[in-house]
Amino acid sequence: MTSSTSIDLNLKRREMVILGTQYAGEMKKGLFSVMHYLMPKRGILSLHSGCNMGKAGDVALFFGLSGTGKTTLSTDHNRYLIGDDEHCWSNNGVSNIEGGCYAKCIDLSQEKEPDIWSAIKFGTVLENIVFEEHSREVDYSDKGVTENTRAAYPIEYISNVKLPCVGPHPRNVILLACDAFGVLPPVSKLTLAQTMYHFISGYTALVAGTEDGIKEPQATFSACFGAAFIMLHPTKYAAMLADKMKKHGTTAWLVNTGWSGGSYGVGQRMKLSYTRKIIDAIHNGSLLKSTYSETPIFGLHIPDNVEGVPSEILHPENMWVDKNAYMGTLKKLAALFKRNFENFLDYKVGNDSKLAQEILAAGPQ
User: Fold this and answer.
1) How many CB atoms lie within 10 A of CB 261?
2) For strand 125-127 and strand 166-167, is the pairing parallel, antiparallel, or unpaired?
């Protein structure tokens, strides 16, 4: 053992032992790891993603690490929630692995997260929160125990849930990144190879409190947006994803919910209202009709206009006062992506040794 805390899985005996922690997330993620082993064996892709469905039956998958807005953006009162975190994509469509949600509730308010707020009622388990003993009133802004405060509730506590939690094949795949460097565009459309590249990279910036001891944002990469849970080589999951997307005509998007106009400390956090408008435009199909221009280095395709979003923010360089600093930061981020991707170059899917090279070519040049 390297610490007093361990989560031990025995796949053969189908047993899990959790030692040295009472954090409920370990049960959830332990079983999720098991699914990442069992499902691909059956040709089913297990995904660390949120999932919702429009009134017309159009399904979207949301990928993103802690703090990127995955739960917030997949919980949308105009759409039915299939699930907020763990899904399978089979030949029949998508299904939720869980029977509930495990929502972060730091700084929770009725205005910011009405659906999550309303789901917290009798039967919901609150974890690591601080409350007033006498009135039992919860202070959601209190980080006294940890910033990682949680609410666990049954899926039907969300008013607009899709029961049972299954849906048809996804029309859109949305990769969320919280870019603390402030150089990724608010939205860009990805090619199939770029989707695999960014899915394998799983980039975001860890912002205060999502992991122990990190108070300053820094670039982090988590393969398939869930490196802690995957059991096979990331390229295996990426190839399955691309295969399903190709077969069902799914479009992928990279959405930056992080900074604009400068890195963390200089720029501003992307307004949630703008991100929601972008997500709406993806859902209703209007973004597909937009004209696009390509970005330097990363080769991303940026729409020239999104309804309800100022067009100048769509191109990150417009928002930076110092254009040289923008270019320098962009190159710095590209180098971090490249260094991270070196871990995945040795892999063949079946007899296809070219796949890793094709994916690499879709990354920053």
Assistant:
1) 16
2) unpaired
